[in-house]
Structures are given as C-alpha cells and as structure tokens.
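Researcher: I'd like a structural prediction for the single chain below. Treat it as a standalone chain; there are no partners to consider.
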Amino acid sequence: MTIRSASLTAGAEHARLLAAALFFALLATVLLNAGCAGPNPHPVGSFERGMFYMEKGKDLEAISAFESFIRHNPTDSLAAEAQYQKAMTYMLLQEYPLAAVEFQIMRKDYPTSPFVEDALFEEGKAYLFQVGRVERDLTGAYEARLHFLRFSQDYPGSTYMPEVVDYMQEISDLMVRKRLGQVRTYGHLKRYGAIAIVLDKLLIDEASSSLIPEVMWERAAVAMRLDDPDTAAEMYEKLISQYPDGVYRDRAASALRDLDAEIEDDEDWED
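Model: Treating it as a single chain, here is the predicted structure.
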C-alpha cells in the first residue's frame, strides 16, 4: 500500500465531479422542501456566507457557498481556509472519501497555507473512518496508518500527536482483530503451523496494539499444540513480566508452573 498521492488523480477528479452532482441534487431537494435555506446576511460568493451556513448546521448550503467563493476567488487569502472548511463539512456529513479528496486538493493547491498540517491530520482520519466492521476490507486502515506515519515525520511536535498515537493504536487493534479471525479459521482446520506464523508476525508488526497479550496467550497455546514448550514458556514469562496487571497474568503464571512441573516429571522419568 502507498499513501494517496497529494496530486489530484483522475480517480479523485472523478470523485469530485460525482460529489458535485450529488451535492446539487441534495441541495435542490433541501430548497424544495424548505422553501429557502434561511436568511443569510452575507453576499453570495463571500467566505462569510459559507461560515454562516456552517455555524448554523446547514452543511449542504455551506459546501455550495465555499465552492462558490473558491471558484471566484482562487487566490484570495481566505481561499485555503474555505477549501479546508469545505472538506471539514464533508467530514461532518460522514462523506469520508469525498472529504479525503477535498483535503488532498487543499494541500495541493495551497501548500504554504497554515491549514496544511490540519488538512494532513484530518485526511488520515477520513481514511480511518471509512473502515467499518472488522470483517470488511481494511485498505482504509492501512492507508490511514501510512498517512499518520507521514504526519508524525512531518510534524513531530504537533499538538495532534497524542491523537495520532491513539489512532495508530486503534489501527493496530483493527489489524490484530482481523488476523485473530484468520487464526480461528486456521484453528478449525487444525493448521497450527499457519497459526504460529500469523501470530509471530503480529507480535512484530503490531507491537503497539493493546491486544498483544491475547496474541501471546494464543501463541503459547499453539506452541503447546506444536510440542514447543520453550516458546510457550517464553510467552507465559512475557505475559507475567510485561503485563503484570493484565487479565492473562494469573493464567500465564499457573500455566508456567504446570509446564515446569511437566518438564521436571519428564526429566525424572528419563533419569
């Protein structure tokens, strides 16, 4: 996977045209049903008109007003902010793919704007929020991860970094849940070697996940299935030392005692 290019691709342009068509259709419905969008004291084509609608929660009208302002004033000092607010309005509408495109446009057309940092962060959120249940395609999560990695490199001191860290852990948890579902399928098929490979990769690739203790517990269990007590003991010891307050700590301690006793019995029998 790669980060979506900052340049406007043909696919992004197509999405933008579709968004515009959808928007005007929805706006026509709103105007027909409401009779009017409500009084706006600011002139048509002004930045303030878009902000007025946005503050009033009239999202479709706000998008139209911002689009009108940008189209007629592309070099205005407020054009970058208008493009950013337009993208944020799509976020409010939960139109995340369209929001991502608008953030891309903002970063491409106004690369020196102080809103570039905000747009880069929000674009990552737009990718992540496209991900639905764990059973669905995680392409958006992969894309969000790469995007947030780029953000952390470009803006390491950003006030958004605590949120970026939280989102990165959320993405890791999504990946782990997806792979644990795969592990359960392999378990039904008794493909224990495949389970070990998947879990070992998770321990390396998703070390920041809050679900790593569960991965370690499953890895210990499959190690016992594969007659590999050394790996099982290693997982139990890590669960005890690295997660002393975790839910697997007591179970790991008990399993490790049983494993040590079994090894001692085997040694006594050999003697």
